[in-house]
Ankyrin repeat-containing domain, PGG domain protein
Amino acid sequence: MGADSILKENNDLVREAISSDGSTILHIAVGIGNNDFVKNLFSYITEEDVSATRSSDGSTALHIAAIVGNTYAADLLHKKNKHCLRIKDKKGKEPLHKAYENMHLDTIGYLLKAVDEYGKTMLRFYSIGTSVQSHLHPGVEIGVDLLVNAISAKQYNFASDLIQKFPKFASKNDDVLMAIAKTFPSGDYGETHISPSWKHLWEGICIIAELMSLPILRGFLMDEWNGISVSNVMKIVICLLFDAFLFLLGLILLPSVVLLYLMWWMSRLIVEPFTHIQKNKEEMDEAEKVLELVCDEIDKLEFTGTHHPYYTRPILEAACQNAHKVVDEILYRSPEAILSTDQSGYDIIQLAVIHRSERIYNLIYDIGERKNLYRTIVDSSKNNILHLAGRLAPSSKLNKITGALLQLQRELQWREEVKKVVFPTYITQENIFKETPGMVFTREHEKLVKDGESWMKTTAESSSITAALITTIVFAAAITVPGGSNQDTGMPVFSREIAFIIFAVSDAISLFASSTALLVFLSILTARFSEKDFLVSLPRRLLIGICSLLLSAISMMIAFSSTLFLVFCHQKLWMLAPICGLSLIPISFFVALQLPLIVDLFQSTYRRKFGPRRRGKRARFNPDNIRLFFGN
C-alpha cells in the first residue's frame, strides 16, 4: 500500500509525530529534499497545519527547509502559508535566522525577499552572538555579516541583489568593502583582455563602420575646393583611393571580428580552458559591479576630514592584496584616500612594495609631489623604500612564481625598479641597525639564492644529459645515412627523395640545436651564481638552453620519422599518417611539459612589469586629481 493510500484513509497521520524529536512526515520530507512528496502532502494539509505542525524544539517545516537549504520547499511552504515566515522556535529564532546560521545563501536570499514582501522590515530579526543592547540594530548586523560572507564566498550575484534590495547593509561599516578588498579576483590570467564580450564586439563593429564611412572626400570638397586644377584633382584621387582602402579594410575586418567572437563563444562551450577564462571574466565583472554598488552607498554618507573613513582600511588591504581595481575605484571617488596609513605608519606605496603588489605600484608611484615623497620616505626604523624592497616577499606571493630562480629574479626586479625611484644617496643609506638596502636584501634572500642555485644546477644537469644523448643519436644518424650509399659514387641511395632532404635538414638542425643546448647548460653549471646573475644572465641561459633542447628533440623525431618512411615504407604513402601520428606523441608530451616553463622564463625576463604603461587602459583613477589635490 502506497503512502497516498494510507494518507487518504487517515489524514491525521500528516499531523502526528513519527520520530523521537517530534518531527512529522512533512518535516522529514523537507529535510531529505523529497520535494515531490512534499507537494503531494499539500493535498492533505491545510494552511494552518503548516504553521501549527512543529517538532519538539518548536521548528516548523520552514525552519527545517532553512536549516538544510531546501529553497524549493521553502517556496512551497511560504506560498501555502505566508505567516510561517515569522514563526519562532523555542529559542526565539525565525526561519531566516536558521538559514543564516547555516549559511545557505540561496535560501537566505529567498527568505529575505519573502520577508520584505510580507511587509516586515529586516530590522526586526535577531542577530547571532551579539547583545540586544548593541549600538547597531541586530538585523543590520546580520545583514552586514551575510553580505560579507556572500562576498567572501565569491557569490557576487547574490551580494549584488542583496545590496540593491537592502542598500544600508553595504554602508553600515567598512566590513563589506574590506571583504571585497580581501577576495577581489586577481585577473592574473588576463581574462579582461582575452575574453571578449558583446559590448566589445559592438564597439569593434562601430569603429569599423566609422572607418568605412569616414567623410574625408566630403570634407575636402566642402572646405578646400578652389576650382579645377592639377593639384586639386590629385588630392581628390588620393582621397578616393584612401576612402576605398578604408572601405575594403572594413569589409575584411568586419566579418573577421564577428567570426572571431563567434569562434570564441563556440569554443568556450567545448574546450575547458576557454570555459575557465570565461568564468573568471564573468566573476571579475560581477565583482566590479558589487564594488561600485558598495562605493555608491558609502559616498552617500556624510563624513568629516579629508576622506571618508570607510575607505582607509579597505584601500590599505587592497594594496596588500594587489587588488588594483579596488584601489583604482577608491582613488577615483576619493583621491585623498592616498594619504591613508596603517598602524605601523606604512602608506599605500610602502605596502605595495612590501607585499610585491606591482599593479598598485604602477597605479600610484608616478604622482607629482607624492613621487618626491616616496623617494625620501622612511619608517620608524629608518628604513627607506629600498630597504622595504630588500625584504623577502610574502610566501603567498612567492608561491605563485615557478621555481626559486624566477622567484629570486622577481625579487631582483623589484629592487632594481625601486632603485630607480629613490635618490642615489638612499641606495647606501643605513637604517637604525646599520644595514644598507643591499645588506638587507642579501640577508633576507640568502636561502632563496641557495635554492635558486640548487634548482638551476639540477635542471641544467638533467637537461645536459638529454642534450648529450640527442647529440650522440643524431650524429650517428648523420654518418650512417638511411638506405646506405652508392658504392661507385658515394652518394646516398635516397639522395633525390624528398623524405631524405627532410631527414638531412632536420638531423642537422637537431645536431646544432642539441650541441647549443649542451654548451649552454655547461655554462650554467660553471656560473658564479651571484645575486646579479639571477636577474637576466642565468634565466636567459636557461631559456636558450631549454628552447634549443626542445627544437633538437622535435627535429630528431622528424628525422627519425623520415628514416622510417624511407627504409620501411617507400612508395607506401598511407604509412605516412601513422608515422606522423606516433611521432607527435613524444613531441606533444615534451612541449606540454616544457612550454609552461619557457613561457614563464620569457615573460619574467623580457616582459615589462613596471611603468605607466602597466597601469591598465581601463583604470578610472586619474593621477591629475591627486596632483590637483596637492596643488602640484
